[in-house]
Design goal:
The structure holds two protein chains of two kinds. By secondary structure, chain A is α+β, with helices and mostly antiparallel strands. Chain A has a single domain (about 5-285), classed as GHMP Kinase, N-terminal domain (Ribosomal Protein S5, domain 2), CATH 3.30.230. Helices cover about 35% and strands about 20% of the residues of chain A. Chain A has helices at about 60-80, 120-130, 165-170, 200-215, 220-240, 255-265, 275-290, and strands spanning about 5-10, 15-20, 25-35, 50-55, 90-95, 140-150, 160, 175-180, 185-195. In chain A, the strands form two sheets. Chain A has a five-stranded mixed beta sheet with strand order 1-2-3-5-4. Chain A has a four-stranded antiparallel beta sheet with strand order 7-6-8-9, with helices on both faces. Chain B has ten helices and 14 strands. Chain B is of the alpha+beta class. Classes of the chains: A alpha+beta, B alpha+beta. At the A-B interface, helix 1, strand 9 and helix 4 of A face helix 5, helix 6, strand 14 and helix 10 of B. Strand 9 of chain A pairs antiparallel with strand 14 (about 315-320) of chain B. Chain A: One of its GO terms (biological process) is rRNA catabolic process.
Chain lengths: ~300, ~350
């Protein structure tokens, strides 16, 4: 099963990240900010946030405008915009590639043309980009996609798929759900479509919570794979004789970044990162910090 | 002397208070003992919708919906899309059988659901539904006439389109214009099933113009779409083999109505959170406000839209902008939305 992978800082902008979801969406994000803002967009007491989404092919349509407005409202609630009044934080997300759906019947299934499967990848890329750009955040978040397919028999409950939603899985799903949680367990964003009842929604909520911020029991799928990857990164760096204690002495912008992550996940102990998406994000950022700080050990 | 000056400087009319510091103004209302909003409603009260249908004479169906000071007109025009003009004809069904008379009944949902379920991709890939929302009519000071469609207008149009498709509200069957070739006597295979061709489709252009916008554009727009679709009449159309074109009958008695699948109703809530507003240090609390007006929308960052259908089915949940509404809250909101659906049902005469 493919894992989610991420690279921080591939571009020259203030912050950038490339994220590949297990489903196969690759998105590159870039953030610039705080920069000067046009007069008509200027807000006297907070920073203006601008989100641009560029599709993999063609120009942006109303669909991208809608996704932009979802990202805008989500980011507005986590970026400390009051820190930079009368400035602009500009985030651009370029969808680089999308999974091949034509092989599974293309838009023969309504769910395959839904914009929900893309949303978690956009949100994750946006977060990693902001972390890379050291934009002060109130908290972090993690986002996941879940699909519900009909119960195998009438006596059972509908099946919930959490990890690696394949196009086949999408096609047969009766409802799709995107959940975004803060590390404190607040539901930041929820988008559900299809046909379902409140009991199913609550079950999906619990599963999503476990994937995003839970202790990782029974969700070895996406999160576990991602963690392995992040762990491998760290291991590779340890080969370069980097003492992990060294990192705590980091100064300046990096500490801000690191502190932000720490503050966001107070329950997460440094030695024992749990097997969830939050732990995966933390792993990615820590690996990057170690890589950037290797000059400190050069003798 | 000094004391009287202080008391005088703290007294000013409510309108001024609302303009100067809107968030504390809203908080003062909500945290009072009666907990009414500035507009006089309680936090779970919706504005009563009024609906006027078929007031536009040039549309196939139309509705004017009013929610308090939010008013919009929805007009539905049907145009013919010949199958020969479709760029990707692979989505047009080829194996149709002639309709038996009983499939036209409106209450055959349960029996027909399985064969109907596949028409979603057909509708979506052929773009048979084209909703568009126009806010730039001077509907509110934020939407001046002549401006290009704002992000809000584009986002609303997209949400309507997504909802129309994901609820599978309209049946592709109602939009197809069929042609059954006559069976020739010297046919080589006399036992062959009579086949039916899709010669054209009706494309529904759903245009929504906001006359006045005072918050909660989505509920008003969706309500007007429902009301207009309920009253849409498509002329009887057929393929004329001799002329090689589609002909329409102008007899109203022959026109067909659309049979909608269910009645999904949208209910929008805004969340007022004191942790986010300006000038509210030290205050705590959050309120979920049903059917927010413009003043409340400006003070609320988080919003929730729930679309419910009959039998406790939820068709869509959209929530973004904050972390107040969680699992427990949402159950209440779904219940409120169910009650709201009954209200709409009465207004729409269903």
């Amino acid at each position: 099963m493919p894992a989610a992978t991420a690279t921080l800082g591939p571009l020259c902008s203030d912050g950038s990240a490339t994220y590949t979801s297990p489903e196969g969406y690759t998105i590159t994000g870039a953030v610039n900010g705080p920069i000067e803002v046009q007069r008509r967009d200027e807000l006297p007491e907070e920073a203006t946030i601008e989100v641009n989404i560029r599709p993999a092919n063609g120009v942006g349509t109303t669909r991208e405008r809608h996704l932009e407005s979802l990202l805008h409202s989500t980011l507005r609630s986590i970026i400390l915009t009051h820190t930079f009044p009368r400035t602009l934080i500009q985030l651009t997300l370029q969808i680089v590639s999308t999974p091949d759906k034509m092989g599974y019947g293309g838009s023969r299934y309504l769910n395959l043309s839904s914009s929900l499967p893309l949303l978690p990848s956009l949100l994750q890329t946006a977060l990693l980009t902001l972390l890379s750009g050291a934009i002060p955040l109130r908290t972090t978040y993690t986002s996941t996609l879940l699909a519900v397919s009909p119960a195998p028999s009438p006596s059972e409950k509908p099946t919930i798929h959490t990890s690696l939603i394949t196009p086949q899985c999408l096609a047969s799903a009766t409802s799709l759900h995107v959940f975004t949680f803060t590390p404190a367990g607040d539901l930041l964003l929820a988008e559900s479509e299809g046909s379902f009842d409140i009991e199913t929604w609550e079950r999906v909520y619990e599963r999503a919570e476990a994937v995003c911020i839970g202790d990782g029991e029974g969700v070895a799928g996406v999160a576990g794979e991602g963690d392995e990857k992040a762990g491998a990164n760290v291991k590779g760096l340890q080969g370069m004789e980097i003492d992990s204690e060294e990192e705590e002495e980091d100064e300046g912008g990096v500490r801000l970044l690191d502190a932000g992550v720490e503050e966001a996940a107070p329950a997460v102990s440094k030695k024992e990162t749990p097997q969830n998406l939050g732990g995966w994000v933390k792993g990615v950022v820590e690996a990057k910090v170690k890589e950037d700080m290797r000059w400190k050990n050069r003798n | 002397m000094a004391a009287t000056t202080v008391t005088q400087s703290l007294t000013f009319p409510p309108e001024l208070f609302a303009t100067l510091s809107p968030s504390p103004f809203l908080l003062a209302h909500l945290s009072s003992s009666s907990s009414t909003r500035p507009n006089g409603r309680t936090s779970s009260t919706f504005r009563k919708p009024t609906v006027n249908t078929n007031s536009l004479s040039h549309c196939n169906g139309s509705a004017v919906v009013r929610l308090g000071n939010t008013a919009c007109v929805c007009g539905i025009r049907a145009e013919i899309l010949p199958s020969s003009d479709v760029a990707n004809p692979s989505y047009i069904p080829t194996s149709l059988t002639p309709e038996s008379p009983d499939t036209n009944m409106a209450d055959d949902d349960a029996d027909n659901e399985d064969e109907d379920i596949d028409d979603g991709p057909e509708m979506a890939s052929l773009n048979l539904l084209v909703p568009n929302i126009e806010l730039s009519t001077g509907s509110s000071p934020a939407h001046l006439p002549g401006n290009p469609p704002s992000t809000l207008a584009q986002s609303l149009s997209q949400r309507l389109l997504d909802l129309l498709h994901s609820t599978r509200l309209i049946r592709a069957k109602d939009l197809r214009i069929l042609y059954q070739p006559p069976l020739l006597e010297d046919d080589e295979e006399p036992d062959a099933e009579p086949t039916v061709e899709v010669k054209a489709y009706w494309v529904l252009y759903i245009d929504i113009l906001f006359i006045s916008l005072d918050g909660n554009a989505f509920d008003a727009a969706w309500g007007s779409v429902l009301a207009a679709l309920k009253n849409t009449k498509l002329p009887k159309a057929w393929w004329d083999q001799d002329l090689g074109s589609i002909l329409c009958s102008d007899a109203v008695a022959e026109a067909n109505e659309l049979t909608l699948r269910g009645l999904p109703v949208a209910a929008t809530f805004a969340v007022f959170d004191t942790r986010r507003g300006k000038g509210m240090k030290g205050k705590t609390g959050s309120w979920v406000l049903a059917d927010p007006d413009t003043f409340e929308e400006a003070q609320c960052e988080e919003s929730v839209t729930v679309v419910v259908d009959d039998g406790g089915r939820i068709r869509r949940i959209e929530k973004s902008g904050g972390g107040v509404v969680g699992k427990a809250h949402l159950r209440d909101l779904v219940e409120l939305s169910q009650r709201r659906r009954e209200e709409w049902k009465q207004v729409l005469n269903i």
